[in-house]
Amino acid sequence: MGKKFLCKDIGMDCPFEAHADTEDELMQKIAEHGQTAHGMTEIPADLMEKIKQAIKDE
Question: What total of structural domains would you count in the chain?
Answer without folding.
Answer: 1
